[in-house]
Write a structure and sequence with these properties.
The chain is mostly helical. It contains 7 helices and 2 strands, in the order H-H-H-H-H-H-E-E-H.
Length: 199
């Protein structure tokens, strides 16, 4: 009986060792897998940090400023250029205000393109302005252009209107009477009340 137990224990020893060895291998595989997952998480965190820094750098980048227009003496505009510009500005002003042509009326007409053409011409001249003297002439032209724009608005708005002088003359002709030997007419308020009727 003791011999049989001894033989059984001898048979069981390798199996136990193999089981222990398998258990150790499983533990090692688990540790390696945990370590690998941890390294992957650290890599993901590093990528997230890099993306965050890149996004912040993009947001904090200042937009480029447009080039500043040089004016006055910095513009290097010659006196001849300025004289030519003022001449063109004055000619444009004369063209807009000359009542002998139909341009002022066409500028006030909503259906005509004369207003847009004149405005575009004035804008081109404005792009050449570098000194105050020419800026004043541009302001005069803009004033004329804005008055034509206001007339366009008036034409777009249909509001009943009447002429006060014409109304007064009509009332005088209708409600005036000659009084006695006087050579002038007096206004008859009674007749006016009858014509107006009850309010």
């Amino acid at each position: 009986e003791s011999n049989s137990n001894t033989s059984i224990s001898i048979l069981k020893m390798p199996t136990a060792r193999r089981a222990k060895r398998n258990t150790q291998n499983d533990d090692q595989d688990i540790e390696e897998e945990v370590s690998y997952n941890h390294e992957e998480e650290e890599q993901d965190d590093d990528d997230d940090d890099e993306n965050e820094r890149s996004r912040r750098n993009t947001n904090t980048t200042k937009p480029r400023r447009s080039k500043r227009t040089k004016v006055m003496s910095e513009s290097n505009q010659t006196d001849a250029d300025r004289r030519a510009l003022r001449h063109n500005q004055r000619e444009l002003h004369k063209k807009m205000t000359n009542q002998s042509t139909d341009l002022p009326e066409r500028m006030a007409d909503v259906q005509s393109d004369a207003f847009e053409k004149i405005r575009g011409e004035n804008n081109k001249l404005w792009n050449l302005v570098r000194y105050t003297r020419e800026a004043v002439l541009d302001g005069d032209n803009v004033n004329v252009i804005s008055s034509r724009a206001a007339r366009q608005v008036d034409k777009l708005i249909s509001v009943p209107r009447y002429d006060a002088n014409r109304l007064a003359n009509k009332m005088k002709a209708k409600c005036s009477i000659r009084s006695g030997s006087n050579s002038y007419n007096t206004f008859d308020w009674k007749t006016f009340g009858i014509e107006a009727g009850s309010c």
